[in-house]
Design goal:
Helix content: 25-40%
Number of domains: 2
Structural class: alpha+beta
Strand content: 25-35%
Distance between the termini: 33 Å
CATH class of the largest domain: Alpha Beta
Radius of gyration: 21 Å
Largest sheet: 6 strands, antiparallel
CATH superfamily of the largest domain: Aminohydrolase, N-terminal nucleophile (Ntn) domain
């Protein structure tokens, strides 16, 4: 788990003290390091790009973020692309050169090669903001993306000349310096009517979230943000084999899922819920790890 904060405003308008408060609000998400870069935009704007790091790959300083890419690009990224070694090998075969052992650098290279369609090749969970000085229509733009099921959070606030993006809503309010204001309509739907909507609106007025399986492009020059979905779940009843073949195929997918999630430069542990799902995952991890894996479970006592 890492934390990101990005602020885009007209030149000279970024409040560094409030940006530091926003970064402090998500310090718990990244105990291994903090980074911040200020970027001057060609259209006269300015961006502050921040990151709180929980290091998983390449624990050295080479893996710090925000990370610079080619052609003046920068990324602040939270998540893990599980198939990054395979993508790295494919990109290296095309001539890309890498200086770190991180999936972050692979995301930058994948964007350079495939543009916003790069996320269609990712197997993992992520939320990131990538600055491209020559993005939409050749003008500075910010590419936002969130994983298929929205495992990693990404929230934003926007006005005609301001964009604030963060991993947690409270970081946005810290930068804005205002108290949270509830969106009463959303509160009614969520708390009274118990209606769960597929909506970008949160229960806080003015605060939106990038929806799961969605990308966005923010263009400071035009003050607009464009969002779109890059993936939708397909029906699962198309398997044409027998029941035993379906069971074998599920086992293969589970084993592969466990194998690629064991990739890390830190010790990997398992949190057990006590159900059959986490028990099956524990077996798959044990088979693929080649060593004992630490497992944890929690118990809570209710006090009335």
């Amino acid at each position: 788990m890492c934390g990101i904060v990005v602020v885009v405003e007209p030149a000279g308008r970024i409040n560094r003290a409030r940006f530091d408060l926003a970064m402090h609000a998500i310090a718990h998400r990244g105990p291994d390091g903090e980074g911040m870069e200020t970027v001057t935009l060609a259209d006269g704007g300015e961006a502050a790009i921040g990151h709180r790091r929980l290091s998983v790959f390449d624990l050295s300083a080479a893996g710090r973020q925000p990370m610079a890419g080619t052609n003046g690009r920068w990324i602040t990224y939270n998540g893990e692309i599980f198939n990054w070694p395979e993508l790295r090998a494919e990109l290296a075969a095309d001539g890309y050169r890498f200086a770190t052992q991180t999936d972050t650098e692979v995301v930058l290279a994948a964007y350079d090669k495939w543009g916003t369609d790069c996320v269609r090749r990712f197997n993992g969970f992520w939320a990131f903001v990538l600055y491209d000085p020559n993005g939409a229509d050749g003008a500075p733009s910010f590419f936002l993306s969130r994983d298929h099921f929205g495992i990693k959070p990404l929230y934003y606030y926007r006005t005609a000349d301001k964009l604030v993006v963060a991993s947690e809503i409270r970081a946005i309010f810290e930068y804005l310096g205002v108290a949270p204001e509830p969106d009463r309509a959303m509160l009614a739907r969520e708390l009274v009517l118990h209606v769960s909507e597929d909506s970008a609106q949160t229960i806080y007025s003015g605060i939106l979230e990038l929806e799961p399986a969605s990308n966005a492009i923010y263009e400071p020059r035009r003050g607009r943000i464009r969002t779109w979905r890059y993936w939708k779940p397909e029906p699962t009843n198309r398997f044409s084999g027998s029941e035993s073949e379906a069971i074998d195929r599920f086992a293969e997918l589970l084993e592969d899922s466990a194998r690629i999630r064991l990739r890390a430069d830190r010790e990997v542990a398992l949190q057990l819920s006590g159900g059959i799902d986490s028990s099956a995952i524990a077996v798959a991890i044990s088979r693929n790890s080649g060593t004992n894996v630490r497992a944890f479970t929690s118990n809570f006592t209710e006090h009335h």
